[in-house]
Amino acid sequence: MKIAIQCFNYAPNELGGSERSALDIARSLKARRHDVRVVVSDGSRPYPDHVDNIPIEVVQGLPIGKSPLHGARHFATRMAWILRSEIDPVLFLRSLQWLRRNCPDVVLMNNPAGHGSAFMLACLLTRTACVPVIRDYGWFCAFGTMEHGGAGCNSTLSPCFYATGLRRLILRRQKHVVAISNHVARIYETMLGYAPTVIYNAVPDRFLQAPRAPAPDAGTPLTFGYLGRLHPSKGVAELITAWQNTDLAQNGHRLLLAGDNQGIALPDDPAAAGICLTGRQEAIAFLDRLDVLFLPALWAEPFGRTVIEAMARGLFVVGSPNGGIPELIPPHRGLIPEQIDAPTLSAIFNDLAQNPDRVRATRMQDPEPNLAPFRTTRMIDAYEDLLYRATGLPKETRDD
């Protein structure tokens, strides 16, 4: 097949799990001898002509601007950004031109809410098969987070719901839609009138292939950690408070925090509190320093890629009851608290420190059986099958 993967941003300008997943999909589809190219709509960053021998083209609309539309969180400015990105005649016309010039069999749209609406409309008008991959809540919510003022928000009676109506209208015209978790699929099923195809993100093979750190010895203090943005929506403030409410640091236990600080108040002397701030870290190297990973998100994480990466490295994972995270963690590989607050997290810290055998048992297990739904081969098989269905092309046309 001739496959175009349309993104807002792409490697080497990676932002997060969405971009990493798009890179995994592009590489794997190319490895199966499909003709793959990537189309990005963010022209504010330079891109090479190719990454991994996959062509990259920029099809840009009106200038997006990073501030104040991206930085400010006010509803009015966010709505201006949404309307500008959806009612973008320049992006629409350039998308039409690109589709007519390149004639892909199918366009796989990576998280297209907002910026991708014009491209999706162009696909409809050119009758190009299109498969949107839904990775967040941007079809309902102006901020893509389904929260307001720190509390959950269903966005169905708010101005967000009406302001994002155009993109939902376009999405309903699509016959094949992917959701990255059952949680996301349930949210969108009513809107679409059918259940999206659930295709989980994959854990990269290198997380399973690299040698793993040994299980901690009996009596060895545990190392707890968090990997991701240090942002209030991630529950990091509650995690730090919970840690400070214990005396685990005095007994040699440590809490490691890796990621950019985006609004979290930190102790005046983190080291004295047994907290180590590492900044951005390579995932495998950082995870191998831990015994337990916390991902205590307050918002409803659509998936939680760090969870499956940590399980691949043999860690005990403490997740969040919100969003898609609970469906990722088997009971014997971690735990899901009923709520995320400092007292609950303090109790978990203390319980694991007093019962480290739970952590050691997890480290000694083979992680692969629990990760079967998250393997790259399974993910690409599912995407390939869906893309063939969307195009109507027979699988026999693939040159194996």
Give an account of the 3D structure.
With 400 residues, this protein is of the alpha/beta class. Helix content is 34%, strand content 15%. The protein is built from 14 helices and 16 strands. The protein has helices at residues 17-31, 75-86, 89-102, 117-126, 159-163, 165-172, 182-192, 206-209, 236-244, 283-287, 305-312, 342-354, 357-364, 376-391; strands spanning 2-7, 35-40, 50-51, 54-58, 106-110, 129-134, 147-148, 151-152, 178-179, 197-198, 223-227, 254-258, 275-279, 292-294, 316-318, 334-335.
Number of DSSP-assigned strands: 16
- Rg estimate, integer Å: 22 Å
Q: Helicity, in percent?
A: 25-40%
Distance between the termini: 12 Å
**Low-pLDDT sequence parts:** 66-72
Strand content: 15-25%
Number of DSSP helices?
14
> Mind describing the biggest β-sheet?
8 strands, mixed
Quaternary class: single chain
Keywords:
400 residues; alpha/beta; 8-stranded mixed beta sheet; 6-stranded parallel beta sheet; 34% helix; 15% strand
Q: In a nutshell, what does this entry contain?
A:
With 400 residues, this protein is an alpha/beta fold.
Secondary structure layout:
Blueprint: E1 2-7, H1 17-31, E2 35-40, E3 50-51, E4 54-58, H2 75-86, H3 89-102, E5 106-110, H4 117-126, E6 129-134, E7 147-148, E8 151-152, H5 159-163, H6 165-172, E9 178-179, H7 182-192, E10 197-198, H8 206-209, E11 223-227, H9 236-244, E12 254-258, E13 275-279, H10 283-287, E14 292-294, H11 305-312, E15 316-318, E16 334-335, H12 342-354, H13 357-364, H14 376-391
Parallel strand pairs: 1-2, 1-5, 2-4, 5-6, 6-9, 9-10, 11-12, 11-14, 12-13, 14-15, 15-16
Antiparallel strand pairs: 3-4, 7-8
Helix pairs in contact: 1-14, 3-4, 9-12
